[in-house]
Amino acid sequence: MNLKCGSVSLTKRVGVFLLGAAALCLTTVHIAAAQGPAPVDLGSAGTFAILSKTGITDVPTSAIVGDVGTSPITGAALLLKCKEVSGTIYTVDAAGPLPCRVPNASLLDSAVLDMGLAYADAAGRVGPDFTELGAGQIGGLTLAPGLYKWGTGLLISTDVTLSGGPNDVWIFQVAGTLNQASATRVTLAGGALAKNIFWQVAGAVTIGTTAHFEGVVLAKTLIAVNTGASVNGRLLAQTAVTLQKNAITQPRAPRARK
User: Fold this and answer.
1) What single DSSP character describes residue 211?
2) pLDDT in tens, 113-122
């Protein structure tokens, strides 16, 4: 019989030895602990691919996978078409895309409240692992899990990689704007998941033409997604979201860490 433990192969005909070797293997197995801060609890906002307080504009055709909603502004400010959304379009009133819009003011009230709480949670995290990294320019870097803080704006001028496991968490606290250059990519490596990446941004967020972005955006103001850009994540804006022929796909809701 042949028993493998990691990269070591143990061969013996004696059953007792094999049992002992198996026990040795079991005692040397390590379960990787999650790295980085605890994830941000999105509450009921975590069911939305796009959530906005003041409206969603669109230059068609975009493709949204996940729910979409605006509140407290009228549904007339939600300009996506039914065929562009694989999910539910929620509005606070009878206005909005027909025939698919679903008026549900109470659901949206709760989601918008939770969006604000999530923003405050992310902004209020203390003890950053990295402060002012790259003087606000992270293009070309590979970022480990952790809490990152910038007192100014943040620029992604070239591709950036977030490398970590499926339970690892990144929180980016940005006091200014977040700008991603055109045709650049935020890439995940090592099993990292978009649901565990949180970008808390006090200023406007701009995702450049044909760029690709990963993670949950918690924006105090505008999120502008330029022509042909794609997002694997959520766009949660306390003002407006503007789209131009974009693909926005929601990740799974984050699991609370125990």
Assistant:
1) -
2) 999 999 999 9
